[in-house]
Amino acid sequence: MITLVDTTLRDGSYRVGFGFTGAQTFALVQGLEAVGVPAAEVGHGLGLGAFRADGIGAGETDTGYMQAARMAARNTDIGVFAMSKFATEADIDAAADAGMDFIRIGMDAARYEQGEALVRRARANGLHTLAFLMKSYTLPVDQLREAAPRIAKWGADGFLIVDSAGGMTPDSVRAYVRTVIETTGKPCGFHGHNNLELAVGNAFAAVEAGATLLDASLKGLGRSSGNASIEALAAVLNRAGFATGIDPVTLARLAARHVSNDDLAIWNEADLVQGMACVHSGMQDRIDALAGEFRLDPAALTLAAGAALGGLDLTETQLTAVARDLAGLQDIEQERCVG
Does pLDDT of 215 surpass 70? Predict the structure, then answer.
């Protein structure tokens, strides 16, 4: 059984300035339930607690989103996302109190220890807890073999392999999913982005490797180049014999009512290069600024940034060092320091 999880209201919120309202949440969850979508992730794109952060927009509080979705859903499972950058243990408690059916705890795969406290708190609250391995490609498969069982010992009920930069290939997705399942015996899912236009194909590859949970969104609405289109993914799965119980045409009509084409990402060079470099779109503004300062090709700087730490986000100091090196200024600066 393949479970499709609609992420329009969470990942898709990036495309609307995190501006979905409680009313929109209620209406879309009702629509998803009517179509037969079994699960939906709701809330701020950056997860629980992000609405409190300075300079980050929010159309509603965490409580408002959770209450709206919970009131709308009768059969559809409702869940939220959290990561330690914004969420506190009190936020996890509030999610449990709001009647959430599941929670995803985000952690950079190569720095997975950052997720331990929230995973343990979520499980202590009785929440179905999934380890959301952001930038999964930053943790080599041989290291994942050791990391996944450790995360499982925290109490995680399952895992998601996450292609944050949209640069994974079907073969790599299969390898990561199989590794999680083989080493933990836990269910594994996949969350993809579409930088190399492989989000649907990679989701299907995940199923071939044993994944039972797939994230997707209406019209592929999501951060950067977007996510897998849930309409297309449902169609592919149905054709391949994986009964989803969902009519893709009905989904497409729901998408037409709730997702404006004006909010969709227009695939561009930056998306392509991010996928090639496995660089998260959150770094792009800083890359563009430094490329301008040092008169560099932004694509070249993006590729260099991806190579520097294997796809992990760079600090401002680290990215500046990469830009200086690419511009041929590293030795000059060292000579100035010596002199």
Answer: yes
Q: Side chain identity at 337, as an amino acid letter?
A: C
How many residues are present in the chain? 339
Cβ(157)–Cβ(187) below 8 Å: yes
Domains by residue range for the chain, with CATH = 3-263 (3.20.20.70), 269-338 (1.10.8)
pLDDT at 1: 86
pLDDT at position 330 is: 54
- Token pair, residue 83, equals 């990561």
Distance (Å, whole) CA 1 – CA 322: 46
Label residue 178 by pLDDT band (50, 70, 90). very high
**Per-residue pLDDT tens digits for 22-31:** 999 999 999 9
Nearest C-alpha neighbor of 193 from the set 228, 152, 219, 161: 228
